[in-house]
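Internal QA ticket QA-208
Title: Verify multi-chain structure generation after dependency bump
Assignee: T.L.

Test input:
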Amino acid sequence: MAYHTLLFLIVFLPAVVILYQLAGKKFRPMVLLAAGYVFFFSFSRWLFVYLIGATVVMYFAGIGMEKYRLMFKEQKKGLDRTAAKELKKAITAKKRRILFVGILFLAGTLLTVKYYNFFAENVTKIAAALSVSAGLPQLDILQPIGISFYTLQGIGYLVDVYEGKIKAERNFGKLALFMAFFPQIMEGPISRYDQTADQLYAGRRISVQNLTMGGQRIFWGLLKKIVVADRLNTMVGNIFSGYQYCDGAVIFVGAAAYTLQLYMEFSGCMDMVIGTAEIFGVTLPENFRQPFFSRNVSEFWRRWHITLGAWLKDYIFYPMSLTEGVKKAGSHAKSRFGKHGAKVVVSLAALFPVWLCNGIWHGARWSYIFFGMYYFVLILAGVIFEPLFLKFSERFPKLVKHPLYIAFQIGRTGVLVVIGELFFRAEGLKHGLLMFSHMIKNFHPSAVVTGNLLGLGLDVKDYLIILLVAAAVFVVDCLHERGVGVREKLAGMPAPARWCAYYVLMLSVIIFGAYGDGYLAVELIYAEF
Amino acid sequence: MEKVKKYTGYVLFWVIFALLLSVLSGIFTPKNNSILAGVSERDWKPMGAIAEERDRVDVLILGDSIVLTGVSPLDIWNQQGITSYVAGQSGQKVVESYYWLKEIYPKQTPELVILEVNALYNGEGAVAEMDYSLGELVEHYIPLAHYHDRWKNLTKADLTEEQVYTEIDITKGFKVKTGTDPYLGGDYMENNEMSGEIDPATELYLKKLTSFCESHGIELLLLSVPSPQSWNNERHDAVAEYADAHGLPYLDLNQMTEEVGIDWTRDTMDAGLHLNYAGSMKVSEYLGSYIAGQYPLTDHRGDPVYWVWDENYKQYQMRLPQEIKTEK
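Actual output:
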């Protein structure tokens, strides 16, 4: 029952909306929680005990840490500074133990269900290479859908309680709802407790405005997902599975098409998710901010899958930067190579785990780890060469502001992103490397015209409709980039114009959607992660 | 007043949308039942039943590729004079069988509907089937959703022409399959690898199909064409239980392969999933005799109104692949 299916759109969602509206303010959060569990059960069946288990651990770990925080508050009264410091140290150690156990449970579950077999396979391979007759067995472990998303939310909650940023939640239902809000359980966005919990529990009445705005955004997401992303799926699949027979330029087009597919699919799904939440008066954090306007890859990752980037920054990058070892290494580098040297060393130490986690978060494959390392190298290179870029900017201030130079930067970032996605989509690292090498060695731009792009599952009309919708998305992204609220503008138009726009949007999804006879159903890509 | 205006606006918005869907459905629906006109290859055979002359089909057979390749209506015609038509499709699910029956019924009023029950097991789980069934429901009432991809091939004629279904399938829905790949696995009914559980959405549509037949005075026969790769006792029991509960006859030819005369070294084209032409002849002969004996169906042979069936039989015989003709 994914977000783009009829079962979700015309049965589940309307049923939840009606039940939610009929229930009183007090019972509305319960309706949402029940809906979350039904939704989760529809995918993962009895694996939903993982979700409940995670919530139970978070609940008790949070309360445990809160108890020690209050204890410290109570006991420090009347203590002198040294004794208070000692007490804080002792209490912090206890809180840390609880945090450790909580994270161990949440991350341990994720690591076991998602990565054990990958780990076992590689240990066995290494053992075989060393001629040691040892190895780990492969286990038949089922992975509940959305575990990669809700685990990060759970860890975020525990760390925030530990750091005292938020108070531990004593209402189990409220915490459970934060973990199981059905629109975001499959693909995120990964939200922090203080971003959504109160909104979810507020039980606001659904207004016509909510319904209209939410519905509008859901259809916009459907347009991206069903018309463009799903239509591109066959062509992308054909190029990636038969790259050996394609010209380098066609491979590049395939990788670019996959990048477009992923953007349309993931951002489209986020539109559906955020639109659904909007119906219930809940504002979820945005996951995309016109990523293809980025001038470098760092900026790209601040605009693409924003909530994952923010989570990694808050819960890995900063804690790593502040560890004693990294601080010491930074000071040492500063004394030897200056301020920039310190920045490079700290970035090196803190960015490596961030990008390793980013890569492997997508799945237990070497190609994902390579994908993470690819960005690690690019971003670290950006840090290393930062003084050069600054000098260049100072020397040519007019040039760096010139639209053509900006366009060049955007294009360069785009090419780097497309290369990254090539490795991301390839059937394993070996194929990724072979594909990349084949692309470089056999690159003939003319092949785009003569290289049988029409023999890859799409005809001219398919390409036209993809370009048309992609152009519409580009225009909307341009307007967003300029700060124009397109949806608000649309909602404020006179009824005939507004209705026409809605009819065009809805009918475009129905008519141009890549579904039904002749099309294979395409599952949500990020739900697999 | 303001409130009334607001709510009228909401209603009007959806009424206009419904009208748009209706008008576009008319435009997008193929004007003929040919593939050239926009009918998919999968739909072409069942749609042929609508193209047949009115009230000519006495027995409508529904199901998936197992019945499509397993029962030859024209051989039943030749032997019993019963007019039957296989409105089957590869991978047909019961929800599709139900909607085909509804689509075909206004044109044909069969006395007997035969459902090949492997269609009960073509699903992918309860939730997926609910979604699929919903899709079929939407496509039945909003044909635009089914024919939406015709935007690529619409012509001016689609705006003006009426729907006229004229393209007849001379095999009456049967798919002739040659070639032999024997099944050597022995008794397969004890094989318990396939679950007999019928998912809720499929059962719902089986019940709808049952009650449609009941309310229209149509007899319903549940049938299993022999198929070692798709049938076992567990499935037989599940269907038999349903048949008992609803007072329906269930003819499982997997349990009587000897009576039917199936020789698994010769009668299957793909190691026991589908029958080949030789196997289908045996099943058609057995099924023809069975329905002729069990139901008051008219033998139309010699009736000048049915001359087309004789013609079609001749054409079908002539068009049989050479290898079959040689064997004969």
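Spot checks passed. The two ends of chain B are 82 Å apart (CA to CA).
Status: verified.
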